[in-house]
């Protein structure tokens, strides 16, 4: 569920950003458009691989690892904004 939620949020944010750039008239290099066509399917493949890895990890350990990384990210933001 965590991976799906993070993926859905990323998809919404990035889709909105790309649409906003397009409507605002921002011209993207042609290679970047090709990159989008490649990287979007790769991101779904990465999510599937991550799901398989997470399924093998006990939930309490996974939650502990996520909590530690969130704590470290919070400290980083507080100390080095």
Give the distance, in angstroms, between the N- and C-terminal Cα atoms: 30 Å
Strand content: under 5%
Helix proportion range: over 70%
Cα radius of gyration in angstroms: 17 Å
Overall domain count = 1
Question: Rough shape?
Answer: extended
Mean pLDDT: 85
SS element count, helices = 3
Sheet with the most strands, sense and barrel status:
none
Class computed from helices, strands and strand pairing: mainly alpha
The strand count comes to 0
Helix and strand element order: HHH
Low-confidence stretches: none
Would you mind describing this structure in some detail?
It is extended and about 45 Å long. It has 81 residues and is mainly α. The model has no long low-confidence stretch (mean pLDDT 85). It has one domain.
Provide tags for this entry.
3 helices; single chain; 81 residues; mainly alpha
Blueprint (SSEs and pairs):
Blueprint: H1 2-23, H2 30-56, H3 59-79
Describe what is shown at a glance:
It contains three helices and no strands. With 81 residues, the protein is mainly alpha-helical. The radius of gyration is 17 Å and the shape is extended.
């Amino acid at each position: 569920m965590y991976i799906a939620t993070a993926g859905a949020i990323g998809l919404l944010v990035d889709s909105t950003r790309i649409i906003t750039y397009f409507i605002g008239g921002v011209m993207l290099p042609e290679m970047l458009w090709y990159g989008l066509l490649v990287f979007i399917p790769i991101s779904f493949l990465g999510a599937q691989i991550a799901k398989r890895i997470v399924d093998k990890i006990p939930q309490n350990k996974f939650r502990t690892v996520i909590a530690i990384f969130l704590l470290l990210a919070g400290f980083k933001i507080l100390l080095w904004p």
